[in-house]
Specification:
There is one protein chain. This protein is α+β, with helices and mostly antiparallel strands. It has 5 helices and 9 strands; from the N terminus they run E-E-H-H-E-E-E-H-E-H-E-E-H-E. Strands 1, 2, 3, 4, 5, 6, 7, 8 and 9 form a 9-stranded mixed sheet that branches. The protein is globular and about 35 Å long. The chain starts with a strand and ends with a strand.
């Protein structure tokens, strides 16, 4: 569990049947436009999750905050998925995507920072990454700013085939040391996570 503000954050393995409906609602929200899946129905989300979980170089995670589904994360081997031939992967590189649920009701100050920090800590501590790699849409200023605050270095714009369409992405990397020195790395216990 990460201790950040007053939130208990955990990651569990995503389950297509259990999680598709909630994930579909998050993807349909305008806040999730850069995922490009706003028109996908629940069956399509099940198929999407099934394809990730069937791939030996990818994983999907449901994130809980105080026991409530609040975010979704994907991790992948960038030498085998999405960035093959684009990124010069080194041993210990781990690709990552994160989607935080749209705001509902009263905003929780610090939630997105805490979630993002927890996902980064999970990549390093839970999954053993030496460096995290991301490729957000180059137009997505909000996530790019969050990435930099988490210790990422923006390398260059690259063309990435993302689900059948090509996006211009900002290839960025973050080492363990850069994350540890970043604004989003707070003193914490290990993030709870698992396959259950």
């Amino acid at each position: 569990m990460i201790v950040s503000t007053d939130l208990a954050i955990a990651l569990i393995a995503a389950d297509p049947q259990r999680d598709a409906a909630v994930l579909r609602a998050w993807l349909a929200d305008p806040h999730s436009a850069f995922w490009g899946m706003g028109d996908v129905d629940t069956a399509g989300v099940v198929a999407y999750l099934d394809s990730i979980l069937a791939h030996p170089a990818q994983d999907a995670w449901l994130g809980l905050v105080d026991g409530i589904p609040t975010f979704y994360a994907e991790t992948y081997d960038p030498s085998r998925v999405l960035l093959t031939g684009i990124h010069d992967a080194i041993p210990g590189d781990l690709g990552m995507h994160v989607l935080i649920s749209p705001p509902i009701g009263e905003p929780r100050h610090g939630l997105t920072d805490a979630v993002f920090g927890a996902v980064m800590a999970w990549c390093f501590e839970g999954l053993g990454a030496q460096r995290v790699v991301v490729e957000p849409d180059a137009r997505n200023d909000r996530i790019r700013t969050k990435n930099v605050r988490a210790g990422f270095t923006e390398l260059r714009e690259v063309a990435v085939d993302d689900g059948g369409h090509t996006k211009t992405a900002m290839l960025s990397v973050c080492t363990r040391a850069a994350f540890a020195a970043s604004e989003l790395a707070e003193t914490h216990d290990p993030v709870r996570g698992g396959r259950a």
